[in-house]
Amino acid sequence: MRKLWKFYRYCFELENYLLLVRAAGAALHVRRQLSDNRPSPLLSAAIEAVERVYLSRQPGWVISDYAKIPQFAHLVTNFPYTWGKCVQHSLICYRLLNGYGMPARVCFGIKRSDETGEKDIHGSRRQIIQISL
Q1: How far apart are CA 117 and CA 127, in angstroms?
Q2: Could you tell me if residue 60 is left (phi over 0), alpha (psi between -120 and 50 degrees) or otherwise beta?
Q3: SS3 call for 18
Q4: Measuring CA to CA, how many Å separate 65 from each of 6, 70, 100, 119?
Q5: Main-chain phi, psi angles of 48, to 5 degrees
Q6: What is the pLDDT of residues 48-61, one digit of tens each?
Q7: Is residue 133 very low, low, confident or very high in pLDDT (cuts 50, 70, 90)?
C-alpha cells in the first residue's frame, strides 16, 4: 500500500502530471505525423516526420530533471499497449526536449537483418540528447 501511495504522489506532482499530459500529446502528434504506422517505420517516413514534430521552446514549460522525459516517452509508447519502438520514442523525446528548451536532435541508424537482408530503421535514445552549451 505504501508503494502505491508513493507512486500516486509521484504521478500527481504538478511537474510530473504536466509532463505526462505533454508526453501523451506528443505521442498523438508523432503518431499522426508518421505516414507509416508500423512499429518500425520506413526511413523516409521517419525523416519526413522530424521537421513536423519539432516544437520550439514553450514559455512556462519547466522541468527539474530532463531524464524524466525518456521515461515518460517510454510510458506513453507502451501503455495501454505497445504501439511504437525506438523511432517513435526518439521523436517524442525530440519534441519534448525542444519544447522544454533543451536543444536536441534525432539520429537515425539503419541495420540490416542477417537472415533476410531487409533494412530496419533505428532511432537512438542514447544519442538524442545533445546539449549545446
Answers
A1: 25
A2: left
A3: helix
A4: 19, 11, 11, 35
A5: -60, -35
A6: 999 999 999 999 99
A7: very low
How many Å apart are CA 102 and CA 9, to the nearest integer? 26
Are the C-beta atoms of 9 and 58 separated by less than 8 Å? no
Q: Classify 2 as helix, strand or coil.
A: helix
> Residue 121: what pLDDT?
55
pTM: 0.78
DSSP letters for 57-102: PPTT---S-TTHHHHHHHHHHHSSS----HHHHHHHHHHHHHHTT-
Peptide bond into 41 cis (omega under 30): no
Cell (9 digits) for 69: 522525459
In degrees, rounded to 5, the angle at the alpha carbon of residue 8 between the alpha carbons of residues 66 and 75 is 45
Task: Quote the cell numbers at residue 27.
Answer: 505521442
CA distance 21 to 72: 10
Backbone angles phi, psi at 109, to 5 degrees: -130, 160
